[in-house]
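Cross-check.
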Amino acid sequence: MGKEKVTILMATYNGECYLPAQLESLQQQECKNWKLVVGDDGSSDRTLEILFEFQQKCPNSVEIIKNNPPTGSAKINFMQLLAKADTPYIMFCDQDDIWEPHKVQCTLTYREDIGIDNNIPILVHSDLTVLEENGTATGSFFDYQNLPRTTSLSSLIIQNSVTGCTMMINKSLQERMLQVKDYHKIIMHDYWATLIAIVYGKVGFIENHTMFYRQHANNSVGAKSPLNPLYLVKRLMQGRKGYKEQMEESVMQVSFFMETYQKQYPIEEQKRRLLEEYALLDTRNKFYRMWFYIRNKVYKRGFIRILMQFIWG
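Predicted model, tokenized:
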């Protein structure tokens, strides 16, 4: 396995409807220097059969792991799969998307072109095209969700803007991710990876679309447009309790981040102060929290999200 330049990690669970198209898109990659490692989480449909058929087509490039017992979530599945990769670069793959033929090569080329020291955590991600369930392409994922294409720590601590299925990480970032002992204290694997990279290393963004993100009812996360009236109604129905739970999760994640890494890997002062203050935010009164958001430019993206932040935050 060590000869492969890129390991692609895929988490599967009952993915028979869309998995064949995704596997075909991997086989059609212009860069052939990859290996696929799949963690199946107890599928009861034809997912494993489809995977084994693909393995026969690519016998030296596919490893299939049956999680026993199942992990119960894509986040934990991916975090466990990380330990199986021993190549310089690692990419994450969802079972229901379609990769453009240039995706692997484009990401590798970008990483090599920016010339950043591989001894620090590096993450490269890209834009992607949202594909509706009926097959209609609706354009940029970032435009669809009104998300920033550049990542700053002040915006990241309150809302992730990096999509795991587009990202590639290096060995240094993998090693730090593997230090996590309690997966339940991180929101998502891609969110955690981005925090590490923005605090200790670099995050690079490819403007080009490298894949089609399939939007359907069974997405683990899904592309949720903040301009969609249905999205507004749903969030308002969740009310203050739902918003507060999300905020508590993000505060807990930052607190756990500091607990996990700060002693071993010192953080530059400005970033450290921001993280420390955010980690204690749920112990402060509302006036203090509002002043913290304004002073540090910590805002969610989109009018609806910001409105909820200031009403319920």
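DSSP finds twelve helices and nine strands in the chain. The CA atoms of residues 158 and 193 lie 15 Å apart. Passed to J.P. for a second look.
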